[in-house]
């Protein structure tokens, strides 16, 4: 996990900036903090004493002798409490108990239809959280933050899902409020593909400052990393690539999308659209996983439809490449498992439609974190949010 430390020599580095140094590095001495912040010894002592008193930082071994007594080393107290995260998909949910660095510990997984509504889904998440806490010997009082991601558009500031195509009953539902009576901690809510993008960036491509994450599963969505941070847009709606409308020449009419419009990328190439088209062609499939299995067997019709889907998705990605010039495009979701068939069409259209300058160093790769990318990324997003420099003072007040 990487966090940019304060610029050395910056005057007035507060408790939050000093704590960020400890979160980013295994351990530090007082002299290390002085060197990296430019703060005086007395100020570093003051900051460090406050962090030690709040148990956000703890002693950790000794430093190397420099002629006098060894300087004590200190480290971020990642076990001071825990974080709880739930990665909610269209048909399943993963939950995890994490330490305060956002490192995932124990996990659970459960089949769950997100269209069952917020009460049913969040109640299931709460049950899983309770089991994880009990197994770890922890209580709700130990929980410093909760992270929830969902497969729909999220107003990030309010934590509300807004007009989601596949999440019946979730519109404007206040997810943080649902947890408020159960846990006395902040609740972060984000779109699932934003969490996936952040996980891939931090764990697999930390050197990449511009990254596009494409989730191709039941639906199609995208998350963007710009300047090393998640880019959500003005209202949280950035990355809705699945609902870009295209004119595809091999159809007599535009297919109706689940969002209510017609001709969306997802309506042509999403997992649910593949199932629809395969069933229309007489194939016995009832789920996206069934479609993936059929494609991997080499069924001629299934392979043809998969390659067509790749070209349609590639058309939309090419527009994104031209717009913000990512260095890496990561593709995840259920359909990423048909890499040979899907990626060929994507690469064909991206390199055909985008300018050479935008593609000369571009990499198009499959996810390395696979189904865990959302869970891992969500935990890291939550840890960064909980320990944002401006929030550390409140944490210390909490004790």
| Morphology call | globular
Q: By helix and strand content, what is the structural category?
A: alpha/beta
The appropriate CATH architecture of the largest domain is: 2-Layer Sandwich
Order of adjacent strands in the largest pleated sheet = 6-5-4-7-10
Q: Number of DSSP helices? A: 14
What order do the helices and strands follow? HEHHEEEEEHEEEHEHEEEHHHHEHHEHH
Distance between the termini: 25 Å
Q: What fold name stands as the CATH topology of the largest domain?
A: Nucleotidyltransferase, domain 5
Multimerization status: single chain
Number of strands: 15
State the fourth-level CATH superfamily of the largest domain.
ATPase, nucleotide binding domain
Percent in strands: 15-25%
CATH top level of the largest domain?
Alpha Beta
Uncertain regions spanning at least 5 consecutive residues: 1-12
Radius of gyration: 23 Å
Based on the model shown, name its key terms.
3 domains, 39% helix, 399 residues, 15 strands, Arc Repressor Mutant, subunit A, alpha/beta, globular, 14 helices, 5-stranded mixed beta sheet, Nucleotidyltransferase, domain 5, disordered N terminus
């Amino acid at each position: 996990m990487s966090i940019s430390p304060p610029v050395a020599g910056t005057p007035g580095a507060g408790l939050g900036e000093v704590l960020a140094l400890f979160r980013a590095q295994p351990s530090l001495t007082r002299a290390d903090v002085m060197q990296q912040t430019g703060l005086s010894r007395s100020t570093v002592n003051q900051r460090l004493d406050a962090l030690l008193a709040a148990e956000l930082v703890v002693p950790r071994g000794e430093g190397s002798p420099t002629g006098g007594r060894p300087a004590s080393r200190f480290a971020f107290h990642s076990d001071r409490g825990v974080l709880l995260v739930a990665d909610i998909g269209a048909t399943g949910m993963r939950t995890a108990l994490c330490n305060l660095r956002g490192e995932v510990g124990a996990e659970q997984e459960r089949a769950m239809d997100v269209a069952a509504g917020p009460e049913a889904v969040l109640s299931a998440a709460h049950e899983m959280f309770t089991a994880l806490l009990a197994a770890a010997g922890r209580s709700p009082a130990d929980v410093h933050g909760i992270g929830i991601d969902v497969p729909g558009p999220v107003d990030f500031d309010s934590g509300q899902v807004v007009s989601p195509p596949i999440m019946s009953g979730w519109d404007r539902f206040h997810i943080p409020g649902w947890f408020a009576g159960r846990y006395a901690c902040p609740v972060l809510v984000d779109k699932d593909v934003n969490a996936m993008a952040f996980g891939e960036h931090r764990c697999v491509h930390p050197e990449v400052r511009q990254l596009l994450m494409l989730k191709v599963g039941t639906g199609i969505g995208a998350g963007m990393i710009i300047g090393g941070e998640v880019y959500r847009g003005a209202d949280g709606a950035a990355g809705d690539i699945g609902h870009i409308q295209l004119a595809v020449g091999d159809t007599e009419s535009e297919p109706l999308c689940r969002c209510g419009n017609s001709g969306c990328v997802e309506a042509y190439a999403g997992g649910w659209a593949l199932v629809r088209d395969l069933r229309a062609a007489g194939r016995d499939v009832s789920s996206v996983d069934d479609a993936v299995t059929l494609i991997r067997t080499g069924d001629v019709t299934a392979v043809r439809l998969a390659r067509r889907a790749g070209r349609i998705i590639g058309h939309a990605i090419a527009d994104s490449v031209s717009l913000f010039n990512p260095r890496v495009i990561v593709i995840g979701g259920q359909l990423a498992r048909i890499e040979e068939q899907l990626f060929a069409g994507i690469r064909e259209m991206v390199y055909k439609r985008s300018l050479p300058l935008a593609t000369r160093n571009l990499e198009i790769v499959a996810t390395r974190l696979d189904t865990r990318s959302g869970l891992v990324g969500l935990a890291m997003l939550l840890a960064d949010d909980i320990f944002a420099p401006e929030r550390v003072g409140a944490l210390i007040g909490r004790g």
